[in-house]
Predict the structure.
Amino acid sequence: MAHLLSNPYVLTAAYFSVAGLTMILFLTIFELVTKYRVWEELKKGNLAVAMATGGKIFGIANIFRFSIQHHDSIGRSLVWSSFGFVLLLLSYFIFEFLTPSTNIDAEIQRDNRAIGFIAMILSIGFSYIIGASLSM
């Protein structure tokens, strides 16, 4: 197996597969913790949900990027990416906690694009902080 993974094409496909499947899992977890149903809202054209979800997708992918770049195996990258995802998920809860007068999920479900945009930027911003710390 080590010989097979020394081929850059096979290794790239392996990272792509593992990251893609894990991203689906992580997005499913995000779906479970939000009070709205992402795909139903997207079908309605809810741009706030699209921005918040896009930020999560970018954030997860960015954490994977840092992890792949700085770790020497798929397994180690997966472990560190998973840890980074937990931190990204925690940042979502911190956002909710720090805005007690605003129900973030309800505002995003109502297509409040300002809140959706801030949620997107927070996911992207935290992903850079998390990713950079994963490279140590």
Q: What stands out?
A: The two ends are 28 Å apart (CA to CA). The mean pLDDT is 93.
